[in-house]
Design goal:
By secondary structure, this protein is an alpha+beta fold. Helix content is 23%, strand content 28%. It folds into 2 domains: 11-60; 61-104 and 117-157, Sandwich (Immunoglobulin-like). The strands form 2 sheets. The protein has a 4-stranded antiparallel β-sheet, with no helix packed on it. Strands 3-4-5 form a 3-stranded antiparallel β-sheet. Helix 1 (14-39) packs antiparallel against helix 2 (45-56). InterPro entries: A-crystallin/Hsp20_dom, HSP20-like_chaperone, Small_HSP.
Length: 165
């Protein structure tokens, strides 16, 4: 059952509109906390991330495509509408953390909202960088709403076979 405000024509309850950003941030934080817990389970991480993304419907932040090539690891992060200066990129060990903020669109604040689909509020996403990449040589570029993060492969990092005695 949806609430119909006779003055606005919107089918969203006024309380939901008022606290929408806080709810989005809460679910984003919960999703990231679950990701952190699942990350400690080793190989479950990819399955856990997919489960969280399906459960929260991508509420945890922008969409990310990740590619692994012979010489580099690449992430494309969809952050259209977020100015470059509002995006932060951090590395904590093998975790790449992308955070930022979609600014609230205030230009029509005197109007009643009939539909609101554009993102607003802060976001935070973290992804695990596989071993064997030079996290100290990260290169990031922002163009046309896509943040591209490239990390070169450390070719000196090779698995070592241990002889059994």
């Amino acid at each position: 059952m949806s609430y119909q405000n006779p003055n606005s024509g919107s089918d969203e309850h006024p309380v939901i509109r008022k606290y929408e950003t806080q709810f989005r941030n809460l679910f984003s934080d919960l999703a990231n906390d679950f990701r952190g817990q699942l990350g400690s389970a080793g190989g479950v991480r990819g399955i856990g991330n997919e489960l969280i993304n399906q459960t929260f419907g991508g509420a945890s932040g922008p969409a990310i495509d990740i590619y692994e090539g012979e010489n580099e690891w690449i992430a494309h992060v969809e952050v259209a509408g977020v100015p470059r200066e509002n995006i932060t990129l951090d590395v904590h060990g093998q975790e790449l953390v992308i955070s930022g903020e979609y600014k609230e669109h205030k230009d029509l604040s005197s109007h009643n909202i009939l539909r609101k689909e554009r993102k607003s509020g802060s976001f935070k996403r973290s992804v695990t960088i596989p071993l064997g990449y030079k996290t100290e040589d990260i290169d990031a570029h922002y163009q046309d709403g896509i943040l591209t993060v490239k990390i070169p492969r450390n070719h000196a990092f090779q698995p070592k076979r241990i002889s059994i005695k």
